[in-house]
Amino acid sequence: MRILIVSQYFWPENFRINDLVEELSRRGHEVTVLTGRPNYPEGRVFLTYRANPQDYAKLGEVPVIRVPMLARGSSSIQLLLNYLSFAISATVLGMWKLRGRRFDAIFVFQISPITAALPAIALRRLKRAPLLMWVLDLWPDTLEAVGVVRSPRLLGLVGQLVRFVYDRCDRILVQSRAFTNKVAVLARGAERIRYFPGWAESLFIDGDAVPEQAPELAAYANDFKILFAGNIGEAQDFPSILDAVDALRDTPNLRWLIVGDGRAAGQVREEINRRGLQDKIILLGRFPLERMPSFFAGADALLVALRKEPIWSMTIPGKVQSYLAAGKPLLAMLDGEGSRVIEEAGAGLVASAGEGQALAAQVRHLMSLNADDRAAMGRNGTSYGRREFGRQQMVDALESWIAECHATSPRASTTARR
User: Mean of the pLDDT values across residues 328-357?
Assistant: First the structure.
């Protein structure tokens, strides 16, 4: 089928949509991506892209149509302008750049912001193709949780925008079952909602060879290494993580390694220095997704955390599936769906969100276990991940929903010749 993917974020930025696009292409679908210029998470357009934008015009056989937009920057105003500029640019220029192309379905990868769906809605009308949206971030709840919007009136207006978007979706896919009721309120029912969780990207599950450990970890070869990978932002609750690090500062041969970057990285670095924890927690910086298996291979435990907020308790952090596939014990400081998955899998130890001292206690517990017990946690996680978040079964389901929407849409027989 001819599928248009609309996503504000795309390769070389590290998001699961990259893996989905490659898998759909491998299955013989004619996939096209409409996106912006890569600038996540640093907030600046990638230097490699600026130097040679033509190198990022195709991902394998998939054409990537990029539109100009303002970078995220480091302030709330810049972030708002980033959201608005993509919505406007992808709508206006997207329609022009995609003129003459026909699509059987349009798929939106919806993490923040919800405005990234607006170009897809315009193209749905123009191309007369059904629209499916993968909701990984609940608006307006997320805006309230991170403190970006506090005004009840403004949150109500955002809620009206979300309702407008949901009303124009033929299928709404949610990454967590806990999202269903929230989405159903604004979608005027659950009939169009389907459960579509994330999965471990192909590089974590393809092949039987154990990856070599990252050379960046060689200096910590004799340490017990707790590794966090991904975005360093407000939602990840680094203040509570640092409370745990501080509580264990006198534990010998324990290191916390952070692989990633984000808007809060500068604040985290300052707090590490203020607390005098430079020797205990090390910010290694951002690395390509392709390097992550080598970092996971060298870790003794993998860390995931989310702030104590109702919205985050409904979320399964995307890194959980990749962690499970790595076959390492998980350490978690979160509530709700994420903690349920880890405990149900028997894949690690969980502390409540925001409880740095409880996380420290779980670290002590994990370190006290023998190597066989920790290895069993890793095996449990891998087995659970394959069963509950199997990549093949997830993409199979998506294909069936796309085909269903296309077949039942009144537009199917009159796809616009534009």
Answer: 96
Other C-beta atoms lying within 10 Å of the C-beta of residue 370: 8
SS3 301: strand
CB atoms within 10 A of CB 264: 19
The answer to whether 43 and 9 are in contact (CB under 8 A) is no
Task: Answer whether 302's CB lies under 8 Å from 296's CB.
Answer: yes
Listed range (54-68, 215-229, 311-325) with the worst mean pLDDT: 311-325
pTM of the entire predicted model: 0.83
Q: pLDDT tens digit string along 26-69?
A: 999 999 999 999 999 888 999 999 999 999 999 999 999 999 99
Residue 19's H or E segment, with its range, is helix 16-26
Residue 302: CB atoms within 10 A of its CB come to 28
- Per DSSP, the three-state class of 167 is helix
| Three-state DSSP state, 355 | coil
Q: What domains appear along the chain, each with residue ranges and CATH number?
A: 2-199+390-414 (3.40.50.2000), 209-388 (3.40.50.2000)
Q: Give the burial class of 209: count Cβ atoms within 10 A of its Cβ; 0-12 exposed, 13-18 middle, 19 or more buried.
A: exposed
> Can you say how many angstroms the Cα of residue 71 is from the centroid of all Cα atoms in its chain?
19
What is the pLDDT confidence band of residue 73, given thresholds at 50, 70 and 90? Answer: confident
| Side chain identity at residue 82, one-letter code | N
User: For residue 349, with 0-12 CB atoms within 10 Å meaning exposed, 13-18 middle and 19 or more buried, which class applies?
Assistant: buried
